[in-house]
Amino acid sequence: MAQIALATGFVLILAGIYGALTNRDILRMIVAFTIADTGVNVVLVAVGFLPGRTAPILDAAVPVAQAAERIIDPVPQALVLTAIVIGLGITALMLAYAYRLFRLRGSLDISNFTELKW
Amino acid sequence: MIRNVLIAGLVALLGVAFWTLAAGYVPDAELNRTAAYYAANAQTDVGAPNIVTGIIVTWRGLDTLGEVTVLFLTSAIIALVLAQSKTPPGASGAGFLPSGELLTTGSRMLLPLITLLGAYVIMNGHLTPGGGFQGGAILASGVLLMLLADPSHRFAHSVIARVESISGLAYVLVGLAGMALAGGFLDNGILPLGRFGAMLSAGAIPLISVLIGLKVGAEFSSILESLEETEDA
Amino acid sequence: MVSPVLILAIGLGTAFSLGLMKPARTRVLFGITLTALGVMSAIALGWTLALATGAAQTAEIHTAGVAPPFAINLRVGLPEAALLSLITLTGLLAALSMRAALLRLGRGSQAVLLVLVMAVSGLVMTRDLFNLFVFIELIAIATAGLVLLSQDERAIGAGFKYLVVSQIISILLLVGIIFTYHATGSLNIDDITVAPVAFRGASLAMFLLLIALIVELKPFPANGWALDIYTSAHPGFSALFSAATGSAALFVVDKVVAPAGTEWLPLLTGIGLLSFVASNIVALRQENDRRLLGYSSVGQLGLILAVIGQRDVLGDAYLYVAGGLILSHAVAKAGLFWMSSMVRGRKLEDWAALRTRAPMVLAFATFVAMLVGLPPFPGFYAKWDLAQALVAAGRLPVLTLILLGVLIESAYLFRWFGYAIKREAAENGLASNPVDCGITFATVAGGWALGYLWGNGPEQFNLLATLPAITAVVFILLEPLDARIKNGLAIAALLGWFAMVAGDYDPMRLIFAAVMIPGGAVILLASFTEKGRRLGFYPSAMAMYAGLALLLEATTFFEFFAAWEVMTLGSYFLILRGRMSEPHALSYILFSLGGAFAILTGFALASGGVQPHPIDGLQDVAAADLAPWVFVLLAAGFLTKTAAMGLHIWLPGAHAEAETDVSPMVSGILLKAGLFGLFLMLMQLGRQSLYGVDLTVVLAYIGAISAFLGAVLAVFQEDAKRLLAYSSISQMGYALFGVALMNHLGWLLAMMFVINHYVYKSMLFLAVGGVYKRTHTKLMYQMGGLITLMPFSFVSVLVGIIAMSGVPPLSGFGGRWIFYNAIMDADLRLPLILIFMAGPVGFLYLFRLIHTIFLGQLKDPHRKLKEAPVWILVPQMIFVAFLIAFAVLPGMALQKVDGYIGSIFGDQPLVWHGRAITSEFGYWNPVAIMAVIVMVFVAVFAILIAKNHDAQMVKQFNIVFSAERPYRPETTHFAWNFFAPYRKAMGFLETPVVTSFWGGVTGGINGAGEFTRRFYSGNGQTYAAHVLLFVVAVYLIAMGGIA
Amino acid sequence: MTFEWIQIPYALLTLFIILNYGLLMTAVVRKLAARVGGRPGIPVYQNYIDLVKNFALRSKISHGVMYYLGPVFRLTGGIGLILFVPTIYGSSWAQNFAFAGDLVLALYFVFFGTLGMALGAGESGHPHSAIGVSRGLSQVTMAELPLALAVYAIAVQYQTLSITEIVAAQQGGLFNWTLFTNPLAVVAAMFAFVGTMMRSPFDVVLAPQEIPIGPPTEYHSAYLALMQTNRAIFPIAKTIIYMNLFFGGATSWAEFAIKAFLLYMIPAVIGVVHPRFRVEQSIRFFLKWGLPVGVLAILTV
Amino acid sequence: MKDVDDKFLKNIETEFPLREELRPRRVTTPDGQEIEIEPLKDYFCEAAPKVHPKAYIPIVEDFYNWARANSLWILGFGTGCGAIEMRPLMTPRFDAYRYGIQWRPTPRQANLLMISGYLSVKTLKRAIRAYEQMQGPKYVVGLGSCTINGGMYWDSYNTIKRLDQYLPVDLYIAGCMPRPEALLAGFMELKKLIKAGKGEGANKYAENFATYKANQKSVIKDWDMPDYNW
Hints:
heteropentamer, B: mainly alpha, E: alpha/beta, Rossmann fold, 5-stranded parallel sheet, 9 helices, 34% helix, quinone binding (chain E), 4Fe-4S (chain E), NADH_UQ_OxRdtase_20Kd_su (chain E), NADH_UbQ_OxRdtase-like_20kDa (chain E), iron-sulfur (chain E)
């Protein structure tokens, strides 16, 4: 189960990276990166998974005393939230950049923005 | 094409690394010591049934403050990025097709519900799945709906900015208060932990959740708005 | 003491609260921002001070009221506090530097800046892996935002490229973090260190973590994105990006590598070295100033990464070394970026505009010296300790690569400095204003303060606390005074120092001291000619003299090396002052640094890491296996200074193009430093052989070849000062040969050369310089017939060449006499041939010098020339008097030295009775020689006067010209290519083998740079692919090594 | 050896003898050459007449101080060389001022006159002088090299730099001469001897028609007279050195006269049968032949 | 036949302007100042020749004259066909060396100027310069008829007829051309003159310098040198 989730996550990451590196369109690159981000998030969550356990919320189903035996690892869950938000922030930022770049050159092809080199 | 093949090769090599990771992965049978500590001390330390929220808001509160800052930064920077392209107020939106009746009416109906849901998610973050981020995002989706429904509508920038600033500042102050009154920066113990599982419990978590929610909502709104206000959006 | 977490809180709180202000009140907003940064700096500085003085203990800050590893915790120890100070101060100054852009873009940009500073500070303090990630992302986003402050539209593209790469980094980082967490069950760095590794993917997780952090450090070649940012971003921000972010990222790597374990260190070393060397090579071909700084930045980060890779051997010195390098880099780089905001043009040549403001040149020089790691800056001390540790640990290849990188770096930095000093300064090329100047000088002051602090380190020799160095610094402050006043002070300072120390020296040291210190004062007399303020001359000259003074005072390896570097640096600035000296000064400093690095390595080898190591301790290694290698390295260094053939190509240009009073200093005095070093070395190490070859024999051969080829090359020069410069090579060859003979008389010969060469070469350079002052040319064939117009100069050249060619009765003959006696003992036969050849060849060029300048036909434009300025003549006449006195009474200087050398070799081949000297083989009575020659001369002269007293004085054109009339002086003066037949017969010796060799080396390196920089195609996607390639490549290498 | 006042008249006497010997001998050599050519040749006293005539010239010019001093340097160089070298071995009075310095002094003092002459010639402003100097200096650098090597070789051989001691070591029979004890060194030295005697094939320095006698082309009257005096003295002085170093020295004036004459005849004989080398040719010649012999000499000592 | 063509004398200044390189000019010094250069004044000595008295004691002068007579150093000036007759003097058959006669390559060291053959106007200038550059006492011997009266070139527009109008000739050796024997006889004659103290041509030249110069300049139109060539 965890392996499958992990594998899925990794495949998403790889696919995202491949997409980001082969698509010259900036918007496509951004989309590819969101895919990769998603993959990362999947990996994060998958690592926190313990077989046969439940969400880390101490309610009626999970009494405090048995919490340690009943819940999955809450830390990756917390981390993934942060990761998602950060990914979101960066994606938004990239989009804004993409917009500015488009305004600048009338193009979204990343190979058109190579004035700075060597 | 060659380039793509090369990159595919690189990605494949990276995949090998990942494969090593995945293949060697054995799920833990037991909670590791950190998680175990959280599970054991959620009630006594933070008083929040939702351990994840407890981690987010308290134990790893600094991360969360950082997250909020990420959004703050993003919104500020997007405003900066798009600043030069911004059209004068009032002139924008002229080029849009008017949004449909369905959308206008639907948004009018949904908006209060969305707001309510957002508020709920925020307030119950320490009890049930949810929290400031989730709620804030929901609130912002309401704003998005409004923007979609009426592209030429202008929000009061200063209001959003104030909410953004005040909630952020308040968050920092709460953190500092933790240093002054309790165990350290961002300690939620500045307020009484209250009864475990109650609405107003878990110390400052609900307060921080609210601040986060407001902050996140405001930031998202601000981002959306900035994006929307570009001249040909 | 307030909690350091307030730095974060203030930064963040202020950033948030800026939104509450009215956006229109820009100045108030900016004021608030500055205040916040100021308070943050104050807190950081307060902690640094408290921790450094021991008033406070390392602060462990727990958040959420829970002890780690369960909640995020922060730590502020001395390194953290120092970095925090660096970061916040850089932030403050950067804010000032970017004030225009920040005011224009309003509160949002200021908030971003605050957040950036806050995040970088947080990165330094936090001990939590995931928190690291958060701060890194904050930095990434804030960076992407601040890049926009630039007016340069290309910055947007650069920002996007940066974001793309950040995405990849964050992916790797997150995967790494989560698996590390999985493996260790903790996110706390300190906790991970103690926890066992749980499964076999853990090292891979650690790899991903580390590699992501390393990519943050912009390693070569995965750094195109960073370079684009450096090129296009606002320089104020670039400073922050390089100094603060870069340093913090390094610190993070350092933090993380502790739990990762020492097996990762070689990887860091490798990446760091590759990055350092390659970036510097690429930078060689760079013409945009900011991009150059960018390459330099990534190079420096690589260097420090490599140093982090050495933490296992550095031990206690680790912080001192890494800190010294980081701070040097940060301060200098930030300063340079801030200066670049004042320079209008973006070409390196445009920095010539700095020249219009002298303090700016000082700033530039300070920063360049800091970057290269020259004294008195922290990088210098760090480099020394690093070398010691590396050699002690047997990591010579690492040291070699580091030094190679530094050398290449200094190549482009000093080339750039040369541009600034020598190139055409554009009209209005400098947008200087009080604020930017203030920022720059605050940075400069910081640099010097750090230099002092580092010098004050434990068991350290503080260069800035020595009297000579202080004097040199004082002369910087005296710059506004008139040159004549400064000159008087300088002479007084030199003489005063000599009076202070002379009593403590043994005779040999005393001779060197006399040549270097009062000798320098005599040459300085010539400087009274210069009017105005002569900016830059006195600090440079006094730095050189300070170096020389300290060299003589040095008792430990480090003191010696420090003095050596100070001397080199001072003389470089001096040489650079010459009119056409830019390329020559560059090759001078490069060769000197190369030589200095050889010395550094040699010392490190000899000391085996024990510090401080007395110079006398060198003899303890004389019997060790590594002694020959120490010998080779030290000799290489010293030979570079004496410009032995092969390492000489810097000398002719440097000496020839220097100013009139500088040439004698660098030729007459500075070259002796190399001899001094050789003496010290041979005294301690004695004969050494490597693979069965006696190294002193090799030295003797080098000396002989230098003596001969130097002379031959001098014969073919048309430029008078170049001729003298080649002659110096030849003369130093003689001295080297003498030293290498390793017998009493050989050394005495060398000492004789020390004195003689100083006197006659200084005299000749001054004379030629005086002529140059009047004729404005150094090309001999353009002069001629100046004898009647410049009789005093002529006399000094005449006496100089008689002395130099060894013709009795002047003092050069003494040298030859000792030489013959010395070689009688030696087994070296073959190199003698070259030495024998060199003598008459020397006569050739000397005659040419005097003939083509002073004799022959006077040229029209020179008909009304005046004698050289009197202050140039005064030292010459002193030298003439000395030469004659020394010729008659050589014992006054040599007898004591002879005794002293005798005490070293345990023999006494010379017997001094009365005025005569007797050796085992021959005898020499200088007084008698002088008397006989003078008597005969006077008698013959009397006869001639009796007969020819009524000779008709005729003009230069009254010559027999095959019954024709000479046409014009130019065509009647046989001067150009004077020794044409000699060239026909021996011209093959002139083939520039050495020059082509070094030309090939530099050409090769430059070509590599040109080729390599094509990697940086400018395409963000390619850059991302580079990152991926880098990661995969390192992965393959590392997994091979670690798994 | 120390100085006593009596040495001054002794030295002057030696000088006088050598001067006359030189003047006569050069004339005799010229006369011999003329006789070989079937001419009566100059009178043997012709050199004296020329000397007197040149001293007796009424008008003279001067190009400047160095021009004026050039011949003084030149003659001082010649006389000094005589005075620094012991002439007759074992003689109580023909030792001159040899106590002032040893072989090294003699070797380097040779350049004194050369330098002065070159400077004087230089100031005459005549390009031919400069060309002559250029040629002369170029040639002498290589010509002197075998001598330097040979001198080193015999100094090592005899373990002394004192000329007197070197001569002493050669006493007691023909086969004690360096010529036989160290023939390589002598051959090398003779290259230098021939090369520096300003005779064909090494006289392109003077080249009377091309660059009218080279360096001294502007000299006349008493200047020339001084230089003529030197030309009488200097070759003898040089011959004395060679004689002392390689050919057993002279124990009496007669031996001196014979040996000096024979030595002097060597370049003269070589000169009459050889055409002139160009400078670069003679440099190559010495490199090719003189230098290897010299190297062999110092390697085999 | 007059050597001087009056027509030419009139416009010497315009017809034969001073050579470019001898004209006064302004030169910039290295310091940037302009200075005036007058080549004739700056390059050459302007002094006139002096009359040198004989030695104070007559017997010394006689001794000197004897030495001078027995040490005749020739500057051969091969201006015409007569020069060919000089060569045999070096051969075994005639061998002038035995009389103390030598050839010197430079006027500075010679004291006997042999004008061997006719002089054209152009060579006269060189002959004058060579003569003036010799140091006194110095002697001039005219060789062959051409130097006496122009000989076979008596009516040439371009040949000097009487050498002693331009230089103080001590002795003419007549003949066209004179044989080497005649030359030797001439030398013997010259020796006698010198020994008798009559070889004072240099002083004569100095005393009558103005006359000689006027004569010389009247035929040599392009006088591009100082009046006396030291």
